[in-house]
Amino acid sequence: MKPPPFEYHAPRDLGAALRTLAEVDGKVLAGGQSLIPMLNMRLAAPAHLVDINRVGGLGASEVTPEGVRVGALARHAEVERAAAHPLLTRALKLVAHPVIRNRGTVVGSLVHADPAAELPAVLAVLGGSVRAARWDTAGGGPVLREVPAEEFFVGPMESALGPDELAVSAFFPALPEGSGAAFEEVSRRHGDYALAGVCAVVTVGADGAARARAACVGVGAGPVVVDLGELGPVRRAGWKAAAALVREATDPEEDIHATAAYRRHLVGVLAERALRNAAREGAAARGA
Amino acid sequence: MTTKLFGEPVQRREDPRLLTGQGRYLDDLGREALAAAFVRSPHAHARIRDIDVGPALDVEGLVAVYTWEDLPERVGRALPLLIPHPALTHGRTAYPLAREVVRHVGEPVVMVVATDRYAAEDACALIEVDYELRKPVVGLEEAVHGAQLVHEDVPGNVGAHLVQEVPAPGGHGAREAIEAAPHTLSFRLDIERSASMPLEGRGVYARWDGRDLRVYSSTQTSTSVRMAVAAALGLPLPQVEVIAPDVGGGFGVKIVHPWPEEVLVPWAAMTLGREVKWAEDRREHFISSAHERAQVQHVRVGFDDEGRVLGLDVSILHDHGAYTPYGIIVPIVTSTQLLGPYRVGAYRVEFTAVYTNTVQVTPYRGAGRPQGVFCMERTMDKIARHLGKDRTAVREANFIRPEEFPYDQGMIFQDGRPLIYDSGDYPEMLRMIKELIGWDSFERRPGRGIGIGCYVEGTGVGPYEGGHVQITSDGRVHVSTGLTSQGQGHETAFAQIAAAELGVPIERVSVVTGDTRRFAYAVGTFASRAAVVSGNAIALACRKVREKALRIAADALEADPADLDIADGLVHVAGTPSASIPLSTVAVLANPLRYAFDEEAAKATQFSGTASPDRPPVAEGEEPGLEGRDYYSPIRSTFAAGMHAAVVETDPDTAEIKVVRYAVVHDCGRLINPMIVEGQIHGGVAQGIGGALYERMVYDQHGQLVNASFMDFLMPYATEVPHVETDHLETPSPLNPLGIKGAGEAGVIPVSAVIASAVEDAEGFAVDRMPISPSELFEARRRNRG
Ligand SMILES: Cc1cc2nc3c(=O)[nH]c(=O)nc-3n(C[C@H](O)[C@H](O)[C@H](O)COP(=O)(O)OP(=O)(O)OC[C@H]3O[C@@H](n4cnc5c(N)ncnc54)[C@H](O)[C@@H]3O)c2cc1C
Description:
The complex is a heterodimer. Helix content of chain A is 33%, strand content 31%.
């Protein structure tokens, strides 16, 4: 359980980090909570490790009425404490344990793209995005691009980032007016990755009509987003039927912890719980 | 002022050290040592065609590479079969490094020594082993089928087969008794594999100075490792010392010895003339140490209208993994301890221990008892259900009565001695547990159930342990015993015994365990035996020292030894506190000196006038020094008992299982320290919750352990372990001077049975397979309710 040899880089500024990534076959090291175990188990063997922990300017988060932009070095724990976005905060409480949240980063979790992770689902249900940077060798400077969530999660443990790209921040859009959100999951033990989980956003319009969107974790190759659209008046919406739609949208696999049937059943149960809780909150926000 | 020490909840004296990072574990030692790492088989069953170490030779820092062929004859021999038994007709053990054939994923094939562990693992990754694959045997059914063999010379994969019969008093065998019984039931039970999984893995560190070998091992038996290493390396015993430093948990896996690494690391240290160390990592622990539990049981029981068992016939299939270094202790313990607190009319038990291409099976805390208790307690619940009776009433009807002790179960126990229960009070215990959990007032509703489980545990097995006690001229008491400690609180409990016996403050007592330099004769720490066997040995040694101290003090005080007492480290004449002499002075007088190295010592020199000129300075029959040594060798095991009860809630939608209350009544005879006993029980219950709800070793059909990490092998966190409510009953053991019974394994033993009982109560259908996960409960609901 010792990593294979690698060359270690500890750049101090973004330009140096990007140049290194452009030059070598490297991997970014952020909080290390996923990467270090993979190195120790020799499941990953990058020739170079680019430690971004000393890069200035990546730790800050920015809160605007439009949403929260989380910097690449913002730790789970900091973002959780800042409590700038109710759904993000709720989801972070479900991520691992305090010790891991003290080191692990929100952006690192997105890039890691574990299908059972909470944060990709949050980004996806909100329609957020990840800002990626790379070094343009010809132009001699950094190039940025904004990757929307629906393009970012490519597959299990696979994001849309190129090998020379660094995710500098992620943007979590604020909940629309009159919205409520919830995250429900079942994990084997406290703090474990979920067997299945559902996060939902329910927005209640001025007319009292509810719109809902849900995203599931642990039951697909990445977050499974279901746009449930208009569901009628929030007080009389058919949450059970909506939950069934969410359930039908997933095609979970069996593993050593749960059968596919159980996972699918859980999605239905959790979707209904999440939708009802989000609707209650949304209705309260709307004053309906 | 002397405080009562025996029986007091003295805080564990080792905890400040262990909890603040001051512990010295195996990997804290030997910072300059070379590091060993192993190439382990990636296949469950294969013949080794060729090993090419060439590609590894360029790794910077590489020192040596060894395969089986490189080992001298003695070192390369098959590892010992520690506990032979006539029924183990086909016992098999591994070689320190695989010889021709590998029989489970994780079996060591090549040893690499390098300047550090990183380089050693880099070299391991480059060594190429050419394997010719064989079809692996995985799972009990496949093993019994016998189409594929784990060992070519073991037909049907059967290592051992044993039938034990205890006829009814009238002479009927169990099968006859069942046929004649008014009611009969038959069913099958399944228990999965788990493992000891201590926080600290195994580890060995060896130093050779050209003449003497010193070995540190994270072991549960340093004395026996010493003998095994000396034998394997051909060294005279006095040239080998083995020390167990602080050990971060054992739970059974570290009683097995010598592990391949315990032979290979010292041998490499001698061969290379350098210090060598190996510290097991978690993956190695999963695939290269030992597992336990896995059994399939077929049960047939006959009983009367009251639920009294007239005949019980149990047939056990026991998965032994690839090797049997620890013999068949686990299924023997299952077969014998299955009887629990009950008298059954006639009993027949048969077990077949089979080989599979998986990690070997050796005792893990409970050592076969959890399986036996699961069987008996499931049986009791099924009888109650069949008759429509309360589950505790059926148990009560079957209990051995207090006046029936000593009670002979008519079998041979794991120590080769008769299974005779020495003492106990099971009806009283049942009354206590029912009261503690509120059995009679429990409000049952769908999704909420209550369960119970009872067990008897044979503890304190022989053959013996010893204790050495020395009082030095500073008045300090040095206690040593040969068995080892893995965090049980021996430094506290043994000190309490010594302080109480000698009449000294506990602060003056220090305890050393598991260091063959201090005490060379011992057996080891396992089978809930340390307090019973070493505890009594230490008490006996203290009594010798006390007697000697009183003799010397009587001389000095010109009093009769019978009139003397010791309190607070002072020997005084009873009723005359002023006529006294400190034990420190007694210690000085006990060792006549020629040279005074300090003022105290001057009292023992030739012109001090303290010694009588008419006697030799060391009288006939005496020895210098205020010290004593004694041994305790039990006639047979002493039988502790316990009853657990739990309330669980099952979620109607998600099928999650929550243990909302957990209660324990425990009887380990006289309590040395109730706080330590409760700690042991809590830890045991936590492990039991793991076995009941979380832990299983998942092998795929290729014999790969697919969850060999803490990501997927789920041990309960503190958040998953319920608060444990405890109460004690004390029925002293008549077998030993202190009247104590063991408590180390107790907590884990009935937990699966209790949880199954409660989940069954909540759900209304049988729970016969453990552990049970939410997914399994969900599937069971679908099967049972459609
Ligand atoms: C015991 C345990 C339990 C856990 N439980 C959960 C859980 O319940 N839910 C959950 O969601 N997570 C869980 N995690 C994972 C945790 O959330 C990690 O912190 C997170 O997945 C990765 O963040 P990190 O900063 O540690 O990334 P690292 O481990 O440093 O990196 C992870 C991957 O992302 C890449 N990367 C990281 N940052 C960047 C960047 N800025 N740009 C480009 N690439 C980058 C790395 O190269 C690497 O490939 C758990 C982890 C542990 C150890």
